[in-house]
Amino acid sequence: MTYLAIVRHGQTEWNRIGVFTGWADEGLTEQGHLDSKTAGMALADTGVQWDTVYVSTLRRSVETATVALAEFGHRPTTHIVDWLINERHVGDLEGARHADLAAMHGADRVAQWRWGFDDRPPLIDVDDPRQAVHRSRHPELGMSIPRGESMSDVMARVRPWLTEAQEAVAASVNVVAFTHGTTFRAIRALVEGVAPKDVHQMQPANGSLAMYQMSNRRLLPAAMAPTTQEER
């Protein structure tokens, strides 16, 4: 039996205070390191020999993987950085507090930006300094870098990555990916066939873990960590 596991990164300061983060490169808080250690211990306790590790290009994913992997009794043989599992690009909302936006636009509008399926945030300008930083870190994307994504956009983005991961698991490779709140939800929705109207109900806590096993060339849920309403 081979497995795919996905982990949401540990807490960041912007998670803690309720700020739209997206592709901003936040590191972990002390609590975030504890979240990561707990996830690593849970992965180690499965007894699975994890072969391939995926991280996004964002620091909080890399730091979570580093802390979690320290709990393993072995070192995975393959380590892959892939922007396809980056967090959702939150466009011009990057760096804005949820509470401030709710005061200006109403709580319902902010909830739709956070949890809606087809709702894109206000798009960031191509010349915005924040976007320039993102382009410099992703030169392979050039001007095709996202300017703001909906949940459905993220699902389309992660689908090729999921196909690659599924093929690896089908070939007897155990894969673990250190992802983000929205990519975690997108992968779950794709694997589990969650209806668009129900995707908003998946709101994983920092350090959440989902695990799937390959059976007859299909991924089936093997174990699922509890979730809370704390996704940022």
Give your account of this protein's structure.
This protein is α/β, with parallel strands linked by helices and 232 residues long. The protein has one domain: Phosphoglycerate mutase-like (Rossmann fold), CATH 3.40.50. It is 39% helix and 14% strand. It has a six-stranded mixed sheet with strand order 3-2-4-1-5-6, with helices on both faces.
Please give the number of β-strands: 6
Output the CATH topology: Rossmann fold
Task: Give me the Rg, rounded.
Answer: 17 Å
The number of distinct helices, counting runs of at least 4 residues, comes to 8
The shape is globular
Kindly provide the name of the CATH class.
Alpha Beta
Which spans of ≥5 residues are poorly predicted at pLDDT below 50? 224-232
Portion of residues within helices: 25-40%
Q: Give the spatial strand order of the biggest sheet.
A: 3-2-4-1-5-6
The CATH homologous superfamily is named Phosphoglycerate mutase-like
The span between the termini is 34 Å
Beta-strand fraction estimate: 5-15%
Integer count of domains: 1
CATH architecture term: 3-Layer(aba) Sandwich
